Amino acid sequence: MSKTNTHDVIVIGGGPAGSSAATWLARNGHQVLLLEREKFPREHVGESLLPFCYPLLQDLGVIDQLKKNFVRKPGVRFIDRDGNISTTWCFDHVIKDDTYLSFQVIRGEFDHILLKNAAKNGAEVREETSVVAADITSESDRVTVTSLDASGKKSVHSARFLVDASGRDAFVGAKSGWRKPREELDRTAIWSHWGNVKLTGGLEEGLSIIIYMGLEQKGWIWVFPLGENRITAGFVAQNSYLRDQQRKLKEEGSKDWKQDLCMQELRHSKFVQGLLEGSNMLIPMQVNGNYSYEVKNHYGSNYAMVGDARGFIDPIFSSGVFLSIKTSSLVSAAINKQLRGELNGKNEAMETAYKQVSGAYNFVHRMIRLFYNPHSVTWAQAGADGKTHKDHENAMAAGHYMLSGDFFENYQKFEGFFQILEDPKQFRRYKKLVIDRDDFVQPSCHSRWEEVFKDMVERDAERTAELAL
Ligand SMILES: Cc1cc2nc3c(=O)[nH]c(=O)nc-3n(C[C@H](O)[C@H](O)[C@H](O)COP(=O)(O)OP(=O)(O)OC[C@H]3O[C@@H](n4cnc5c(N)ncnc54)[C@H](O)[C@@H]3O)c2cc1C
After folding, report:
1. CB 310 within 8 A of CB 37
2. 345 C-alpha vs ligand 1 centroid, how far in Å?
3. For 147-163, how does the pLDDT look when each residue is reduced to its tens digit (9 = 90+)?
4. How far is the CA of 15 from the centre of ligand 1 (A)?
């Protein structure tokens, strides 16, 4: 029988949710053990961050490092499949300080920065250590966690509280039978990174580009700039469409259907086809399947789920990392109160935190349903700059705030904008008054190269010089 190690909090998983929770809890003086299955840096999908991440990352103490490492993101451009309709949403329209400029990150590096930061703040971090069992049902209310390290050594740990941040494995939810798929969002993504790309169409200003693929795929393409000549690009489509295409490609003799399918779908967009000419793929094709699910029983007296372990929704609005870190911030504060005993039996702080978290997830889910509703507006049609159309100023600002991440504290205030988008009659009027203008379809937020790329390019030059010594 192995010796049991005792801690205040055990965190499963060292992605953005786990490492930020570990940082905040360790800073509050709790003894935190974080167990991560992989050796970092490891590749991960989800590279485009919402501006509302900025203050959280600042509080975590990593913002200066992020500024040096990654492309800055001033906004997002939605395009329809044929490239005929597009709108560009610039965050500085509503965010008037430095935080409007978000980040396009290489997740392997970004997650590693956050994980090292957790260790720097006092958490004990063990990589290449998988959690294989977690018991949250003991009468004593302590949790018992069993882990296996890379050498196959088994360890048993005990703690007052368990944070499940195991991502889409949703460890506690899956083991307890609490995870179920959201069938209406049953989709798969295939993606990679490409180098030697000439950035155009707004990418050269750091913009995210999202292309709606239409009714057959019920999906979309993303293209984000990760460097001066590097992009991440991928497509998301409904599983039934993917199965049909996979069969078709195999019948036609495809030796690598994932690669062929990804290229086929990306080339459906003339814009992406042009970008990829002369480029080279930098990492093997990645597949993320069946990714939409929900989990119930998000917290109990001795455990809490954060990030994708709490539930996952379609990533069309690049909201995942923000939802994860923001949830960790609210939930860590509630755990801190509980562990300090500042409560009278009932953890109201946790209830309040999860009410806000569920409000935010439900809100994003409503935005997503709207995106996929063929009878409703597409986001490629739904923007405006508001200078000339004061009547719709509020609706337009609401759209910018929603896309920036303002949906934890303030989601109720967007009801009016939702109603415009959801009602075809109201939307037609809005479109006529607001959208059909030349300036709004420009692929630009007028960002300068110095703002978007300079720090990262200088850091790369320094790195190359150091390696040459
Ligand atoms: C196609 C696609 C595109 C996306 N695009 C975006 C985007 O542009 N912007 C955005 O913000 N989000 C995006 N997301 C969502 C984003 O990837 C996630 O929301 C985010 O990574 C969640 O962070 P997390 O810390 O909860 O989980 P993860 O980042 O997945 O981390 C979980 C960690 O737990 C570890 N782990 C799992 N099980 C165990 C175990 N048993 N023991 C020990 N360790 C374990 C894993 O190794 C992993 O490192 C996208 C997702 C998909 C699928």
Report:
1. no
2. 33
3. 999 999 999 999 999 99
4. 6
